[in-house]
Amino acid sequence: MGSRTLVFLLFALAVSTAECNSEGDALNAWKIKLVDPNNVLQSWDPTLVNPCTWFHVTCNGDNSVTRVDLGNAGLSGPLVPQLGMLANLQYLEVFSNNISGSIPTQIGNLTALISLDLYQNRLSGPIPSSLANLKHLMFMRLNSNKLSGAIPAPVIQLVQWGNLRIMNVSDNQLAGSAHHTNRTGFAVTTIIQDAKARK
């Protein structure tokens, strides 16, 4: 009986370590693609067991990443699909940088996300419809980028589920418009967009 317990504990430890390593690998894959003139990612050492000791990264009691705070850090480069592997991430704060390229569809895998702050960057392309998977999202600030196309209808429907409080998509190149709605009777979502949508 004792040996079975030991085997179970070792297995649980291995699974936990593998998860932490995969999160570190995901963040390191991003670091490799970024230009970091201020060395804010200097502590991001991929040889460590997990990224919980890295600056700008917060973890929960299970050593799983819950927060990445890289606002106003002088970073340039893309977001990477590997960010979608951070299963317990609640806050992705990457505002006021020079992040370019598109928003990866894999961001829609971050189903625990509460705040997605990508404003004041150089992101382009469409808003991925996969963001509609973010049912816990309260703050979506994508303003002051170069995003184009229409806001996907499934993303606008996040308003109806009652969690989204702010959706700021102003100062982009988006077409169409979204209107305030309060069908749930509980939450009122503030939607901030340009007065005239660009065609």
From TrEMBL:
This is Leucine-rich repeat-containing N-terminal plant-type domain-containing protein. Pfam families: LRR_1, LRRNT_2. Keywords: Leucine-rich repeat, Repeat, Signal. Residues 1-20 form the signal peptide. It comes from the Eukaryota. Residues 21-60 form the Leucine-rich repeat-containing N-terminal plant-type domain.
